[in-house]
Amino acid sequence: MSKAPPKKKEPSLSKASLSDRQTAAASLLASSLESFGAAWGCKFPIWPEWNDEEVNKEKWDSSKGADEGKTNKSPNAPFFEEPEGKISLPPSLNVHSWKRPTEFIVNKSPVIVESQMTFDLISANDHLICNELMRWIISDICTVSTLCNKTSTVQDGWKPWDHIYSLCRAEKGHMPLYNSYGKYLVRLYWMGSWRKITVDDCMPFDEENNLLLPASTCQTELWPMLLAKALIKVANTNELSEVCGEMGEFTFIHTLTGWIPEFRPVNSGDLGKIWDFLQDTIPIFTLPEESLPEIEPVTPVSGKGSSLKDDKSRLPEQENSTSEVVVCASCYPFQPQNNSSGFGLMANSAEVLRQYSLSLLYSHITLVTRTRSCQLEAPPQPAPVPQWKLIRPPKEIVVTAEPREPPLSKPEQFIEVASPFLSYRFKSSVGSIPELEAKQGAQSSYAPLLVPIAEREETDCQQGLEPDASEHTTNSLNSNDVKKVIAEDRKKDGGDISSDRHKTATKEPVTEETPVKPILEKTWMDLDDFATCFQTLLVFHNSQIYPHNSHSSNFKCPEVRGTSYLCVDSVEPSEILISFSVLLIWGETTEEKKEMSAACGSAALTAQPHSWKSVQSQLPVFTIKTTSSKAAMLNLPAGRHVLSFHTKAALGYHVHLCSRTPFVFGDEETVMPQLTKESTRFTEQASSILRALSRVVTSFSDEHDHSTTRKALEEAHCPRNINTTLEKLEHLKVFNSAVYHMLCGALDRELTAEEQFAVLALTADPSLLACGCEEDSPALDAESNLPENWKDGEPSDHEPSDQEVNADATLQAGFKGHSVQEILNAAKPGTEENLSASKILFDMWPQVESDADKHAVFLLRYIIDHHFERKAQLFPCQQDEWTNTTFVDYSVSLQDTANSWVLIFREVFLVPEEMLLAAKVYSPIPNCLLHVINNDTGEKLDMVLNKLAIHVFQPNKLGYTFVAEAVTPESPPVGAEWRMRLISSREPLPKLTREAPLNTFSVKEFCDYYIPNDDNLICRYSVQVTTDVQGTIQFQTSMQDVLIRLSILDQGKEVASNTGKGHVVIPIYFFLANKDEKNQEKSGCTSQEKGVKVEDAPQQKPGKSDLSPNQHQPPTEIMDQKYMVQAEVLYKSWELDESRLAFVQTLRDLEKKERRANELEEMKSSSTPETPSRKSDTQKNNRKGAKAKGKAAATAKAEARPETVLDLTKPHWTLRVVTDESEAESIEAEKDTERMDQITSIKKAWETVEPGRCAKALQSRLQFLNPVQPQEDAAESTKLAAPKCDADTSLSNEKLTDTSSTCPIMDYTPFIRCQKEFPVLLDTQMEEIQMRERLESIQTYRLVRDNVLEHQKQQELNRKELMRRQPGIYENMQADLWQRCKRFLEACEALSSHPGPGEKKEREEKPALEEDQKAV
Q1: If DSSP codes are grouped into helix, strand and coil, which group holds residue 650?
Q2: CB–CB of 191/649 below 8 Å?
Q3: How many C-beta atoms surround the C-beta of residue 679 within 10 A?
Q4: Beta partners for residue 926, in sequence order
Q5: Among positive and negative, which fits the CA dihedral 716, 717, 721, 724?
Q6: What digits encode the pLDDT tens for the residues 282-332?
Q7: How many Å apart are CA 590 and CA 596, to the nearest integer?
Q8: Nearest to 1136 by CA among 1249, 1037, 1233, 1216
Q9: Around Cβ 1089, how many Cβ atoms within 10 Å?
Q10: Alpha helices per DSSP H over 449-520
Q11: What's residue 1204's pLDDT?
Q12: Over 70: is that where the pLDDT of 35 sits?
C-alpha cells in the first residue's frame, strides 16, 4: 500500500480545510493494517487514502503501485487482475463467465467515455432493474448528476466518469483513457475519507450473454461498468439486513459525494413535524399570481429561524442558491414474518405506490424536491356583485332540526418527488399510454441542494438555465381537471424557460450544443400518502458548510471499542450532526465474509452524560446502531455539556461531528483542560454584572443616569427566585461584600480609609465593614489614643466602671450616626462627598478593567459561595457547575522488573480543606491497584471493583498516603510511565509533601518453603528501625487461592493487619524508632532524609531490667517498640497433596538435623577449657549479648536459605519489606528466633555453671525413653554422650533419633467416643435402657406415618367427590345465569316500551307540525 504524505493534525475546534479534517483516520489506519490483515487471514489491506501525487506516479502497465517499484508486464499475465479477486454479485445475478472489453466489444475500440453530453442508464439495463443493488446504483448516479449539474455548465458540472483514473493525471477536468492492460483507479468516499480503489476491466456475463453490470446506451463506453465495480466493492463491506433488504443503510450517494446521510423515520403520528421540517429544508411551490419566486430555505436542518448569513460569509465558495441538505425518501419491503401487522402495511404501501406509478418491489431512493401548500393554479375570481344586491341582502334560511357544523376542509399539503423509475413498469410492459403522457407536467427548475466534497480547491459553479425533465403530476383531482391544470402549468413554465434560453443564447455562441442530462420524472404526492409509501427520510448534509468539524477513526481486529468525549459550551441551544461509519465485513471469499458477519454483529455508538467526579452511570441520550454509515442530529440545550461516546464495531469505525456551535471532541487529554475554566454562561452572567457595576461607577456623580444604572445593576445581580424583601436585603449584603473583596483583590492590597469610604458610598451600605470586612480595616494606633492609666497596665488589669461603659456606648452611637450620615450623603449625586468618592472610584476602577474577566468571575463566584442559601440555585449558570473540573498529574517511571510485584508510587498528600476528590490511574500495566490511607486513623478508603471510590476528603494533620502497586508481566514495557490524576471541582487540590514524587525504593525480600504447623503460622520476622521509617509490607504465596492474614505486632499487640487470597499488602505503616536509638543517631551526626515526618506520635520511654550476675539467665530489655511481622493461614486453606507433604517432611527432617548440628557445635564450644578470667568474661558477655549472638546465628541461617534457588513447583512464600531508598539502612528485618534463642541461652548458662550438665540431661532422657534397653546399651550411650569427642556425641544423637522413632507414643484420644464429661462403662442395664428407647422411637414414627397416610387417602377421596359433582354445579350456575339474563332482558323491553315524557310530547307535537308544513 502506498503511503500518503504527512498531514497536519486536525484541531478539534477549528474551521479547517477538508484535507486537515480527514487525517485522524489515516494515522490510525497505517498503524493497524498489518494486525488487521493477520487477524482474519486477509491477503489485501484496506483501501488507502487518495493522494494525487501517488496517482500521478502510478504504473499503469504494472500491478505495483507508485512506491513499490516498476515491474514490466509478464507474458504469463497480459492483463491486470484485482488483488481482492472477483467481485461478489447478489445471488439473483448468476455469473456464467468473465470477459474483457476486447471480447464483448466487436468492430469498435473500447473507450471510457464516448459521449460527454448525456448518458442513459435505464434503457440498456432492463434485465438488471429487478435487482435491488443495480437499481440503487442507477438511481443514485442519476440523482447525483441531476442535483449537481442543474445550475452548472458542462465544464464545471459533476460527471460520473470523474471518479475514474487511467493513463491520465489527477487534475480537474481529466479524461480517463482506455488501458489495454486493464488497470483502473476509482476515487470513492468511504470510512471518512476519499479512497483509492483499484479495479480491472473483467466484466461478468450470464448464460444468455447479458452483461451483469450497468451500461449506457453507448455500446463502447466502459465507465458505467468500472464505476459500478468499485461501488459494489464498497457495498460488499456492508452487512446484509433482514429488515432493509440488500442495501441496508448503505447509500451510493454518500460514496459518490461524501455527503453525510441522516436517517429520519417517517411515522404517521409525526406528520406535522415532517411537514415543518420539509417546509424549512426544501423549496416551496408558490403561485405565479403572488409574484414571488420559490422560497429557498435558509434555516438549518433541525431548527427554525436561524440565518445562514454568517456561515455563508465564512464560506465564500458556496453559492447563494446552494442549500445545506438534500432530502430523499426510501421505502423497504416489509417483513411480515417479523410482525403480523406487516401484511396490512405492505398492502397499503403497495397500493398507494401503484397510484403514483411506483412499485414496492422496485424500492430505491426517491428525491424530494418541493413542497406545496396551495393549488397548482389560482382559483377563479368570483363574479362581481352588483351594488344594489348589497343593500339589505336576504338571509339564507335553512330549516333543519340538527345544529349546523362548518365543513372541515383538508389543508393543501403536497410533496413533489422525483425518480428515474417513475412509471417504469408501464413503459416496459404495456408501452406508451397516451393518458399518462398527457399527464406529464411542465418543466420546473430548482436549485442544486449540495455539491460533492472534493479534496482539491473548488471553483464557483455557474447557474445553468437549461430546462429540467418533465414532471409527472398525480393528485386526488379528477383526470380532466388535472389535464387542464398541468397544461396551463406547462405553458407558464415553458414560457419562462424559452425566455431563459433566449437570454442564454445571446451570451453563448450559437454553435454550442446544449447537453441532455439524465431525466428524473416528477409527481406530486399527498402528505398522508407520502407517509404511507415511504418509511425513511434520508437527509444528506454537506459537511463543508459547517464551520466546526472533528474526525475520529480506529481500525483493529477482532473487535474495536473506543471511548471519546465531547464538550459543548454555548449560551444558545446546540445542534451537532454525528456520523458513524463502521466496517463489519472484510474478507476475500464469501465464506470469510459470512464467518465475520456471524462473529461480529452490528456496531453501536452511544452517548451519555459524563463526569470524572462521579461513578454513577447516566442513561444514554443518543444512540446510533448501524451496519454501514448513519448519522443523527444531537440537540442540546444551552449550557455546558460533557458527553462520553462509547463505540463498538467489529473491525473499525469512523466518527464525524459537524456543528455550527464550537465544540471539543477527543480523548481525556483534549477535553478535560476545557473544563478547568468557568462555563460560557457563567462568564456571560459575571460579565453582565460587572458591566452594570461599571456603568454605576461611571454615572456615580450623574444625577440623571444614577438611578437608572442602579436599577439595571440590581436586575443584573439579583436572582429571579428571590421575592421577599428580607431575602433581597440578605442578598444585597452578600453582593456588597463581594464588591469590596473584588476591589481588594484587584488592587492586591488592603484599602485605605478613603478607599473604604468610597466603596461604602458605592454600595450605599454603611454596615458593610461591620458585617464581615472589619478584618480588612486599618487598625487604630492604640498607644496614642488610650488613656494614661490604661497604658501602663494590661487590658485585663483594668475593669471599666459603669460610667465609662455608658460613655463609651454614647460615643460609639454618635460616631456611628455621623458615619452613616456621611456615607448616605456620599451616595447622593451632587454632594461634595459624592464628588470625592467618585474621584477615588475612577482612580481604582482601571485596575478592575485591566483584567475584567477574572474579576467578574471572582465577583459572581463570591456571591454564590457566600450566599445565605448555598444549596439554592440562584442563576441558570449554576446548572453547569457539575462540569467544572480541575486536575493535576503525578507521574513516575516504571521499573523493568519482569513477572514480579513492584511498588510504583507512595507519597503523602496534605488536604487543606474539605473536597470531593477522584483519583484516576493511567498505567500500561493492567492490574495496578491504588490504595489511600488516612494517616491520622490508619483506615483505608473504600474501593469499588479494585478502583478507588470517589471520596470526600476531610482535612487532617498527617495527610493521606497514596500507594500504588502492580504485578509486572513477563515482558514489561520499556521506558513506560505510570501516571495518577487527582480530579476535583475546583482548586486548591491536595499538596504533595515533597517537591517531586520518588519512584526508587529499597526492597528486602525473603523467600522460603511452606512448612505447616499447629499455629498455622507461615513466617514470623522481627523488624528493627534506627529512625522513623515508613514501610510497605507485601506477602504472597505460590497458591493463589490461599486465605492468608498479614499482621504487624508491637509488643505482642496487633497494630495493623490485612487479609487476602494468595496476595496481601499492608500499604503503609510508620515504624517508630526507640528514643535511645534516636539520641545515638543524633550524637553520631548521621542524618538521613525522610519522606514523611511523623509528629505528635505517642512514644514510651525505654525500660530495662538489671539482672544480678548470680542469676544465670539471658539478659532481656524492655523496648519501646518491638515490631513483629507475621503471616498465617486462615481456615486451613493451604492444603498439600501427598507429594508435597513428603517434601515438607523432608524439610522438617533437614531442619531437625541442622538444629542438632548447631547444638553439638555449641556444646563443643562450651566444653573447651577456659582460664578463670576468660570464663568470667564469658559469663558477663552471656548476660549482655547472648541474645544478640543467637539472633546473629539465626539471621545467618535464615539468610542462607533464600540465597539458594527455590523450586517454584513446591509450596513457597515471599515476604517483601519496601522502604525509601534513603531509609534502606535504617531498617532491618530478620527471622524471629526468640524462643530458640532463649532455650539456647539457658542451655549455655547451665553448661557454663555446671560443665557436663548437657550430657547428663541427654543420658537421663535416653533412660526415660528406653526403660527396657539393656544396661550395656545404656553404658555405651553414656560413654558416647561424654563431651570428650565430637564424633561420639553425633553418634549418640543419631542413636537417640533412631530409638525415639522406633517407639512412638500413640495418642488414642481421637478413637474414643466421648458423649459425657467422664467415660462410663457400658453394662447390661444401660444396654436395656438404650434398646427400650430405640423401640419407643420406632413405634412413635410408625404411628405418625400411619396418620399421614390416612390423611392423604382422605384428601384423595374428597378430590374425587368434588370432580364428580363439578358438572352438576356448573349446570346449575349456567341455569341461574340464564334466568337472571332473561329477567334483565324483560325489564329492558318493558322500559323501552314505556314512552317517556319527552317522547309523549314529540308524538303530540308531530301531527301539529305536519299540518303546519302542509299549510305552508
Answers
A1: coil
A2: no
A3: 22
A4: none
A5: negative
A6: 999 988 764 444 444 444 333 333 333 333 333 333 333 345 789 999 886
A7: 10
A8: 1037
A9: 9
A10: 479-507
A11: 57
A12: no
Cell numbers linked to 196 = 483509492
Predicted confidence band of residue 43 (pLDDT cuts 50, 70, 90): very low
CB 211 within 8 A of CB 225: yes
Is residue 25 a contact partner of residue 71, using CB atoms and an 8 Å limit? Answer: no
Closest-CA residue to 859 (of 703, 1009, 682)? 682
**pLDDT, tens digit, for every residue of 1291-1330?**
334 433 443 444 456 666 666 655 666 666 777 888 899 8
SS3 1179: helix
Question: Cβ-count burial of 647 within 10 angstroms (0-12 exposed, 13-18 middle, 19+ buried)?
Answer: buried
Q: Cell 478592575 appears where? A: 848
CB 1065 within 8 A of CB 882: no
Q: Which residues pair with 325 in a beta bridge?
A: 541
Measuring CA to CA, which residue among 1232, 1234, 1188 is closest to residue 1022? 1232
CA-derived radius of gyration, the chain: 49
Distance in angstroms (rounded) separating the CA atoms of residues 606 and 564: 11
**Residue 1248: its pLDDT value, please?**
78
Q: How far apart are CA 921 and CA 982, in angstroms?
A: 9
pLDDT of 962 strictly over 90: yes
Enclosing H/E stretch for 136:
helix 132-148
Say if residues 919 and 932 touch (Cβ distance below 8 Å).
Answer: yes
For the chain, helix (H) and strand (E) counts, in that order, are 34, 44
Task: Give the length of the chain.
Answer: 1416
Where helices occur in 1123-1217 by DSSP H, the ranges are: 1138-1167, 1172-1203
Q: C-alpha cell of 1321?
A: 462403662
Cell numbers representing residue 178 in the block? 482506455
Of 654, 631, 649, whose CA–CA distance to 576 is shortest?
631
Distance CA 930, CA 945 (A): 12
What are residue 1282's DSSP bridge partners? none
Question: Shortest CA distance to 933 belongs to which of 965, 961, 964?
Answer: 961
SS3 455: coil
Give the Cα-Cα-Cα angle 63, 66, 67 (nearest 5 degrees): 110
How far from the centroid of its chain's Cα atoms is residue 1317's Cα? 68
Asked whether the bond before 204 is cis by omega within 30 degrees of 0, the reply is no
Closest CA to 888 of 957, 787, 989, 960: 989
What is the Cα–Cα distance from 362 to 136, expressed in whole angstroms?
Answer: 9
Q: What is the DSSP string of 883-899?
A: G--EEEEEEEEPP---S
Long-range contacts of 1381-1387 (CB under 8 A, 24+ apart): none
DSSP class of residue 1024?
Answer: E
Q: Which residues pair with 1057 in a beta bridge?
A: 1047
Cell numbers standing for residue 247: 442495501
Give me the amino acid identity at 1011.
I
Predicted confidence band of residue 173 (pLDDT cuts 50, 70, 90) = confident
Residue in this structure with the C-alpha cell 370432580, named with its chain if needed: 1363
Please state which of the ranges 3-17, 810-824, 937-951 shows the lowest mean pLDDT.
3-17
**Cell numbers placing 184:** 483502473
Angle in degrees, 0-180, between the axes of helices 832-849 and 725-747, rounded to the nearest 10: 60
Hey, what's the cell of 288?
405565479
Cell, residue 396: 339564507
Q: What does the buried/exposed string (b/e) look like for 918-927 if buried means 16 or more CB atoms within 10 Å of the residue's CB?
A: bbbbebebee
pTM comes to 0.72
> 892-903 burial, b for 16+ CB within 10 Å, e for fewer?
bebbeeeeebbb
Q: Indicate the SS3 state at residue 705.
A: coil
> Which sign, positive or negative, has the C-alpha torsion 721, 727, 729, 731?
negative
Residue carrying C-alpha cell 386526488:
476
Distance of CA 695 to the CA centre of its chain: 46
Provide DSSP, 390-423: GSSPPPP----SSPP-PPP-----EEEEEETTTT
